[in-house]
Amino acid sequence: MTQKKHLLEPGWVYVVDDSAPALKYAEWHLRRLGWRVFAFPDARACVQALGSHAPEAMLLDIGLPDGSGYVIATRLRRNTATRRMRIVAYTGMVAEERQVLPEAGFDAVIAKPGRAEDFARHLPTPQDGDSLVRLASWKSAAAATSPGSALLRHCA
Hints:
Blueprint: E1 8-16, H1 20-32, E2 36-40, H2 43-50, E3 54-61, E4 63-64, E5 67-68, H3 69-78, E6 86-91, H4 94-97, H5 101-104, E7 108-111, H6 116-122, H7 131-142, H8 149-155
Parallel strand pairs: 1-2, 1-3, 3-6, 6-7
Antiparallel strand pairs: 4-5
Helix pairs in contact: 2-8, 3-8
């Protein structure tokens, strides 16, 4: 039986932000670190993508016009297939948000726009040691188990 943690796609990161400049800025930094970046301008597009692919990590804006980053993070933590995903908050309101971020399931926070060292510290270069094994495990299990299906039901 494939372990649930193998459902996370190694080397992939989702970046979710409704601010186009912040989205492009984060995408540029993460690509330089070796991530395969998938950028989403809103919560709905991200949640739909989670229905078929679960990234290894996510950089998630808190205040999205069509959804809450808190709700998405909380749902990801409750889902056994995405529980181990690295989730980093990407917000301009760090002082106000810092207390509630861990409770919602965030691993870290980057204050917008973020510095190169912030991205490197909280979303370091993905490790490829066993990526091929993990990728094969994910692909074989993905057809049977959609990691975002429960999330889609709760956030749609």
